[in-house]
Design goal:
The complex is a heterodimer of chains A (925) and B (372). Chain A is an alpha/beta fold and 925 residues long. Chain A is elongated. In chain A, helix 14 runs antiparallel to helix 15 and helix 18 (495-502) crosses helix 19. Chain A folds into 4 domains: 9-103 and 171-261, P-loop containing nucleotide triphosphate hydrolases (Rossmann fold); 279-354 and 430-521, 3-Layer(aba) Sandwich (Rossmann fold), CATH 3.40.50; 552-588 and 725-919, no CATH class; 600-701, abc type-2 transporter like domain (abc type-2 transporter like fold, 3-Layer(aba) Sandwich). Chain A starts with 14 loop residues before the first strand and ends in a 6-residue tail after the last helix. Chain A has 34 helices and 25 strands. Chain B has 2 domains: 2-43 and 170-370, no CATH class; 52-148, abc type-2 transporter like domain (abc type-2 transporter like fold), CATH 3.40.1710.10. In chain B, 66% of the residues lie in helices and 7% in strands. The chains are: A alpha/beta (925), B alpha/beta (372). Strand 24 of chain A pairs parallel with strand 5 of chain B, so a sheet runs across the interface.
């Protein structure tokens, strides 16, 4: 454990942080009940207590990432309720949220992650380089600078998280369960690292929550919490002395109220009777490769029925992959995996009913309540309906979930969520339980309760249990354990056998020895050589006063932009979709959308059958606008054939048409249009009129009529901007307008809501940055991508479609830049408004499409729009870029004629930034 | 039987998810009410509200009758312009048409000198340009006929034109139904596809795949639940917004339309799931979805009638369920067609849907497991 300088809490004068009368609720649930407590300065303070007693909430309030509901929180000599103080305090606080690497960016490398945080705190390049070097060397991450964070093991992720937190030399370091889910060796290395940091900077205060009592025992000062209240404070020795207990764990139990204490009793593992028996789980020479990477390397395991088998090893050593193969979620590369003597088969529904599986990350529905999740599970496993209620009640009670039965999992602490997953896994009474780190993040009391259940299942019901864990005391309770590293099994046997085999004093030491031995040659996950690299004092001091300067603010904006761009570059498929999609769409639309309707299918009912009527109908047959269909034989046929859509227009020539025509009695030809598509009907009406006119002129020319029909006036129609009346000329500018806004908006629409869903939004909450820097930084790379897309689209339109740029290209390009800016800003507005990624995608699709296609002058001229359509069109940027686009492509206009539209687009940018800033929360609720 | 139970149960779960996303519910409501109403009410494909400028250099009785003959609701009251203003009026887009009557127009006409009258048209908006020009020409011709008091004013043959299914050719009828089709297309694809990606990103799919449910059950649950929500929204929208507020006369059977819509939703949600098995993350899915719904919105026969499209594209669009659904919806709702007429469309939609679902099924397990 950390050999840090120890201080007595009593010698500390002013606390680094203090809570006074703080109450915090999540909906109905009370997380903190009128808590008043001090966190002493310059020492290591630990928060201990079961899950869901308010430890995380307390830390988040002190870090300023959660909004204070009532009471006062002071930290670093100021009120954390005041946003002015928070802005300066953020630069001196480092916050590491719960969950492995939750605030990291998985596609970014180790160095890039740290570099991003350095930029957030306004450090210059030399300083960042020095710090990255220093931090990675002291954490042993230096050989992996280029490895993406997502590919690190859990322990390494936490070290990286710590590096990111320490980059700005904080005065107050807040760690929320930093070692949960981390293997024993990495855990020890982690605390050694903290110890060295404290040795280097003795004034630093550390506040940490932990589920490990043996870790907590080493801290200077402890705050024991239960049920939203502080039970006791003091050093671990104080607490032990005060309660007269033998260990800190016992001391904590003694502090609990009477009825909670009763739940606790010493755990005894009765011996297993059925020594051998048939194997429930059997793996032989199991190997799994992902590309070059060998995740599981020739693993053979045989687990008899009723045995509790423990799997230990660092994160990423292949435990999870092995378990997934056994459940049928993954198909092994080679070797065999058998359950109940049957090869595992993804399609085998019957076997699944006999297995309970719990994955490492939470995999139940956050949108269902605890009870609804259990109900769903029960019904899908076809538990008889009359038993469901009782069974659910039983597991709710057994896993102490009854009081949160109607809560949503998102609002529950990690440990409670784990209990829910366990409850779900055993609900259908499986014969085999495969549990991937089931107790990670679960408090000691709940862990013991859970183990009681496991032992009972194994010993009484002969259930086979295969689990992985990082807790050595849990490993000691297993019938057999195996230690895995880098895909291979290092040791396997009963806990006693392993201790003896290694000649170690305890199982923990045996494991650490085995791991260290295994790591020496490969040096893969290793920390630094014992003692670590010498930590030199920082030669650079951060000038915090200058932190607010504009240059720094720009640097932070750039930090966000750079990170977003890196993530984009790491996702080439997304770039490809964003660049190729518009080109394909432009091509299809340019050739598909036509206002020039041709080949309208028609049929005639010729009631006359004379030479004149035939001549009349020939005029239609010869027109390129019409396509002749078999003639109609009766009036009743008209409706039927129009209804079926076979005909779009029917002509009815009356009897005596020819005779009337020759006698000048003006016969009437009936025309029945299909009015279902009004645009086509209108066009068809014009065509019919046109064919009639040319027929009459023909008649006149042939002298078949006495009256000359020459018009007394010459009407000259000039189709301006598009003399040839080509659809492609008219549609291209609109296509450009439409595609730029759709793709730009969609690219940023997920920006904020996705960070919320995945957790990295905490970095915004905990860093001294303005919302504007965050927003602008987020959209900058997408504006650039939009401009690349603009360039390719313009090339396609000019050279592919042959629609030249007649006006000022500069006006068009400048317009496009501002337009992309407005569109991406609009995406951020959508993103800060919705609560789910689904809503973000659908919202940006529907909100953008409707005004873009209909109200922006692309299909229908804006001057003809009515009512709400006109207003919505005017309130959306598409309309103004459409004017620029049409102006430059069709009308040959220059900047002088169009600048008004540019100005309006700039206003849109500001308006969207304003709205997004308003909607974006700077703190969690 | 068990399978059906599972599908039902998982579908109920989907409905819960939706209920817990108030913004999404709000967006669905917006889509089928406000969005449909504003477009149908505001956008006219017929000549309506067209803005005309008149440059009257003649200032005669005849030239003034032209301005008076351009009537609402087809045209806005024409605005007088000077010859110098013509270009600016068209450039700025404030006027779609400018009629230029030259000096001595009336005198030249009466003297039989066949004067030239010029109509300048902003041809960048072709929907209006073509039909509007025809309107203006016929109005001018009628005014000339009245002025010259010609005995036999127009032609030796008269046309008696009447439109079936929409007697006054009100474009709001057409637009309203097209909007419903467009919005259904977009929503069904995104809702089902994104629901699959969400399961994958949240890791819940992993949990489902170890339970005694099959991928087809998981998919069918998404199909029915998302489909049911949209179907309900469509029918309510049709009754309240389209028939009620917009006063469109629905000619055909609601039941038949509901049946076809259900089939179409099956096909579109299957398409959404297929896309979700291709995209690896939500941002990718969003971008991948755009080309699909844009092409289907613009090229299924709603905006541009199929017969106006190049043959190759027309053939290609036969693979899109929305093409058949557009034909189906127009036939049933506007023309009152019965099952005997629209069954080929229904078969096509169902067939495409089954093919898509089959393809999604092939990819499902593999893509779900690999993503983690």
């Amino acid at each position: 454990m950390a050999a840090a300088p120890r201080r007595q809490a009593s010698t500390v004068t002013a606390p680094v942080a203090a809570l006074a009368g703080v109450t915090h609720r999540y909906g109905e649930r009370l997380a903190l009940a009128d808590v008043s407590v001090d966190i002493p300065a310059g020492c290591m303070t630990g928060l201990i207590g079961p899950d869901g007693v308010g430890k995380s909430t307390l830390l988040a309030l002190v870090a300023g990432v959660r909004r204070i509901q009532s009471g006062t929180v002071t930290a670093l000599g100021g009120d954390m309720g005041s946003s002015a103080h928070r802005q300066t305090a953020y630069a001196r606080i480092a916050y590491m949220p719960q969950g492995l690497g939750r605030n990291l960016y998985p596609t970014l490398s180790v160095a890039e992650n740290i570099d991003f945080f350095g930029r957030l705190f306004g450090q210059d390049e030399a300083e960042r380089r020095w710090r990255i070097d220093d931090l990675t060397r002291s954490t042993g991450l230096d050989p992996f600078l280029d490895r993406p964070a997502g590919k690190l093991s859990g322990g390494m992720k936490q070290k990286l998280s710590l590096c990111c937190a320490l980059i700005h030399d904080p005065d107050l370091l807040i760690l929320d369960e930093p070692t949960t889910g981390v293997d024993p060796l990495s855990r020890r290395q982690f605390w050694e690292l903290i110890g060295r940091i404290r040795a280097r900077n003795p004034s630093i205060s550390v506040a940490t929550a932990t589920a490990y009592m043996e870790e907590a025992a080493e801290f200077d000062h402890l705050i024991a919490m239960d049920d939203g209240r502080v039970l006791a404070t003091g050093s671990s020795r104080d607490l032990i002395e005060r309660t007269g207990a033998g260990s800190l764990e016992d001391a904590f139990i003694a502090l609990l109220p009477e009825e909670r204490r009763r739940q606790r009793k010493a755990l005894v593992v009765p011996p297993r009777h059925s020594g051998d028996g048939d194997a429930a789980i059997e793996a032989e020479h199991l190997t799994m490769r992902f590309g070059d990477f060998v995740a599981v390397d020739d693993v053979s395991v045989r687990i008899p029925r009723g045995e509790i088998f423990g799997f230990l090893g660092s994160n990423g050593c292949g435990k999870t992959t092995t378990m997934k193969i056994l459940t049928g979620l993954l198909q092994q590369t080679s070797g065999s995996a058998r359950l109940f003597d049957q090869p595992t088969n993804a399609a085998d529904i019957e076997t699944r009913k006999r297995v309970g599986y719990m994955s490492q990350s939470f995999s139940l529905y956050t949108e269902l309540t605890v009870r609804q999740n259990l109900m769903l599970h029960a019904e899908l496993f076809h538990i008889p309906p009359h038993q469901i209620r009782a069974r659910i009640a039983a597991v709710l009670a057994r896993f102490d979930l009854a009081n949160v039965a109607d809560a949503y999992p998102e609002a529950l602490p990690l440990g409670v969520r784990q209990r829910l997953q366990l409850a779900t896994a055993v609900l259908h009474r499986p014969e085999v339980l495969i549990l991937d780190e089931p107790t990670s993040g679960v408090d000691p009391i709940a862990r013991d309760t859970f183990w009681e259940q496991l032992i009972r299942l194994s010993r009484e019901d002969n259930v086979t249990i295969f689990l992985s864990t990082h807790f050595v005391n849990e490993a000691e309770r297993c019938d057999r354990v195996s230690l895995m590293h880098a895909g291979r099994i290092l040791a396997m046997g009963t806990p006693a056998e392993i201790v003896v085999g290694e000649g170690a004093p305890s199982l923990e030491v045996a494991f650490i020895d085995l791991l260290e031995k295994a790591q020496e040659p490969s040096a893969s996950d290793a920390g630094p050589a014992s003692g670590g690299a010498p930590v030199t004092p920082s030669p650079l001091a951060i000038d915090r006063a200058a932190d607010q300067s504009h240059r720094r603010e720009l640097g932070k904006l750039w930090a966000f932009a750079r990170r977003e761009a890196l993530e984009l570059v790491r996702d080439p498929i997304r770039i490809a979709f964003a660049l190729v999609g518009p080109l394909i769409l432009a091509a299809t639309m340019a050739f598909g959308i036509s206002f020039d309707i041709e080949d309208v299918p028609y049929a005639a009912l010729d009631g006359d059958q004379s030479a004149e009527s035939r001549t009349f109908l020939e005029a239609f047959a010869g027109s390129r606008y019409f396509e002749t269909r078999p003639p109609l034989s009766s009036p009743s046929e008209i409706d039927r054939r129009l209804e079926s859509g076979e005909l779009r227009v029917a002509l009815m020539i009356p009897p005596d048409f020819g005779r009337d025509l020759l006698r000048g009695r003006t016969p009437e030809v009936g025309v029945v249009l299909d009015g279902a598509n009004t645009f086509r009907a209108e066009s068809t009406r014009g065509y019919v009129q046109g064919v009639l006119n040319s027929y009459i002129q023909d008649l006149a020319r042939r002298g078949g009529l006495e009256a000359a029909i020459a018009s007394p006036v010459n009407i000259e129609t000039r189709f301006r901007y598009n003399q040839a009346f080509l659809s492609i000329e008219a549609i291209s500018p609109g296509v450009l307008m439409m595609l730029l806004i759709m793709f730009s908006t969609m690219l940023t629409a997920l920006g904020i809501v996705r960070e919320k869903e995945l957790g990295s939004i905490t970095n915004l909450y905990a860093a001294p940055v303005s919302k504007l820097a965050f927003l602008l930084g987020k959209q900058l790379p997408y504006v650039a991508l939009g401009l690349v897309s603009f360039t390719t689209l313009v090339l396609l339109i000019t050279f592919g479609f042959g629609v030249p740029i007649r006006g000022s290209f500069l006006a068009l390009a400048l317009g496009a830049a501002i337009y992309c800016c407005a569109a991406t800003a609009f995406g951020l507005v959508v993103s800060s408004f919705v609560n789910s990624q689904i809503a973000a995608i659908f919202g940006s699709a529907i909100i953008v499409t409707v005004p873009t296609v209909n109200f922006s002058g692309m299909m229908y001229p804006v001057s003809t729009l009515e009512g709400g359509a006109r207003v919505i069109g005017a309130l959306f940027p598409a309309l103004y870029f459409q004017r620029i686009s049409t102006g430059v492509f069709n009308k040959g206009q220059d900047f002088a004629a169009l600048y008004g539209n540019h100005l309006v687009l700039i206003l849109f940018c500001f308006a969207f930034w304003g709205v997004a800033s308003l909607l974006l929360k700077r703190q969690e609720r | 039987m068990r399978s059906l139970e599972n599908i039902f149960r998982l579908g109920i779960k989907e409905l819960h998810s939706l209920r817990n996303d108030p913004v999404m519910v709000f967006l669905i409501l917006y889509t089928f009410t406000v969005a449909i109403y504003t477009v149908a009410h505001g956008v006219k494909t017929e000549v309506s509200n067209a803005s005309v400028g008149i440059v009257d250099e003649d200032q005669s009785n005849l030239s003034r009758t032209f301005a008076a003959a351009l009537l609402k609701p087809y045209f806005k009251a024409p605005e007088p312009l000077t010859p110098a203003e013509i270009d600016a009026a068209l450039d700025s887009g404030t006027h779609s048409f400018v009629i230029d009557i030259p000096p001595d127009f009336e005198a030249d006409l009466l003297a039989g000198r066949r004067p030239t009258l010029q109509i300048s048209v902003d041809a960048t908006s072709m929907t209006l340009a073509g039909n509007g020009t025809a309107y203006i020409q016929s109005i001018i011709a009628a005014e000339l006929g009245r002025f010259l008091k010609t005995e036999n004013p127009e032609s030796p043959v008269q046309l008696q034109i009447r439109a079936r299914f929409n007697p006054n050719l009100e474009s709001s009828w057409f637009t309203a139904i097209m909007q419903i089709i467009n919005n259904v297309t977009m929503l069904s694809m995104i809702l089902a596809g994104a629901a699959v990606i969400r399961e994958r990103e949240h890791g819940t799919i992993e949990h489902l795949l170890v339970m005694p449910v099959t991928p087809i059950e998981i998919m069918m649950a998404k199909v029915w639940a998302n489909g049911a929500v949209i179907l309900a929204a469509v029918l309510v929208s049709l009754l309240v917004v389209v028939q009620g507020l917009l006063g469109v006369a629905i000619a055909g059977s609601y039941l038949l339309f509901a049946l076809g819509t259900a089939l179409f939703l099956f096909a579109m949600t299957s398409l959404g799931i297929t896309l979700a098995t291709i995209a690896r993350s939500m941002p990718q899915f969003g971008l991948l979805a755009i080309p699909f719904f844009v092409v289907m919105n613009m090229l299924s026969g709603g905006v541009t009638p199929l017969e106006a499209m190049p043959q190759a594209l027309r053939t290609f669009m036969q693979a899109a369920p929305s093409t058949h659904y557009t034909a189906f919806a127009q036939a049933v709702l506007m023309r009152g067609a019965g099952l005997s007429i629209v069954w080929p469309q229904l078969v096509a939609i169902g067939g495409i849907g089954a093919a898509l679902l089959g393809y999604a099924l092939l990819r499902f397990r593999q893509s779900m497991a690999a993503a983690r």
